[in-house]
Amino acid sequence: MTRKQLFLNFKGGTGKTSLSSNYAYRLAEMGNRVLVIDLDSQGHATKCLGYEGEDFPRTLLEVLVKRVPLKDVIQQTASPNLHFVPSNLTMSTVDLALMPMSGREFKLKNALKDIEPQYDFIIFDAPPSFGLLNLNALMAADDLIVPVLADFLSFHGLKLLFETVQSLEEDLGHVLDNVFIVVNSYNATYKLAKEALAALKEHYPEYLLPQVIRQCTKFAQASSEGRPIFVADRYSKGALDIQGLIDEVLKRLEAAPQAAKVG
User: Fold this and answer.
1) Residue 35 in contact with residue 121, Cβ under 8 Å?
2) What's the CATH fold of domain 3-255?
3) Tens digit of each residue's pLDDT (9 = 90 or more) over 97-109
4) CA-based nearest residue to 211, from 180, 189, 167
5) Which residues sit opposite 148 in a β-bridge?
6) pTM for this prediction
7) Distance of alpha carbon 176 from alpha carbon 256, whole angstroms
8) Domain ranges of the chain
9) Coil, strand or helix: which one is 183?
10) Shortest CA distance to 232 belongs to which of 246, 218, 243, 245?
11) Which of 15, 18, 75, 190 could form an SS bridge with 184, CB 3.0 to 4.6 Å?
12) If DSSP codes are grouped into helix, strand and coil, which group holds residue 143?
């Protein structure tokens, strides 16, 4: 059973793309068949995997709008288990192109059907906004992973995101299997960070994962160079914390009756 996992936060600057791309890379390294779908027109997930979006003539735009089969857009990375759908600036027109279409909320979910059996995990990296593309991703996803920073500005983004998820349940009948909140770029030497983490534990105890991703210079540098942290330094804090995140997510999935046992 394929797990479709969406990394999304309406607040920007949370390090979501570095986290999602390294999470996907490590899952593939562990032997899982993984597909990363870059939904952001800036193509940051594509860059974090070591590629430039402008080098690819086709993106998800061709799939959702022009009905090109998804298999024709999927690209292979140097890792045999890791594939990706690239993104570039042409993706900025997707929301407008989807607007007049019937069944526009389900275009991505339907496009995935033919290729789903080939993968254990499909990871969506979404831009920090809400539009038809992110709505498609939410409707296609089983799990929502929300990277946040340990600051009090994160609470507003979380509140808006949970309200959106609730409206999806009420209006479109789509219920996510899991919502996971993960604190990224955490620095325990900051009093404000510790206070914000305590507040997250108080307000979102059932969603907040115990594993935090500690602030790590090597992690940030590797992402900027288009290299996974597991290639740059697999014994760094960033690599160890992402492994802990994966272990925690897999443990929770295995505990759920609908979860696939992979990893």
Assistant:
1) yes
2) Rossmann fold (3.40.50)
3) 999 999 999 999 9
4) 180
5) 183
6) 0.94
7) 13
8) 3-255
9) strand
10) 218
11) 15
12) strand
Residue with tokens 């604190």: 183
CB distance 194 to 188 below 8 Å = yes
**Helix/strand number for the chain, H first, E second:** 11, 7
Rg (CA), the chain: 17
Helix or strand or coil: residue 84?
strand
Confidence at residue 181, expressed as pLDDT on a 0 to 100 scale: 97
Contact 35, 83 (CB under 8 A): yes
Return the structure tokens found at 133.
């593309």
Cα–Cα distances (Å) from 89 to 38, 169, 222, 226, in that order, read 12, 31, 23, 18
**Which tokens is 246 given?**
């994966």
**β-bridge pairing 3-7 and 82-85:** unpaired
Query: What are 253's two structure tokens?
Result: 């999935």
Look at residue 131 and give its three-state secondary structure. coil
Q: For residue 37, give the H/E element and its range.
A: strand 34-38
Q: What pLDDT, in 10s, does the model give residues 172-215?
A: 888 999 999 999 999 999 999 999 999 999 999 999 999 999 99
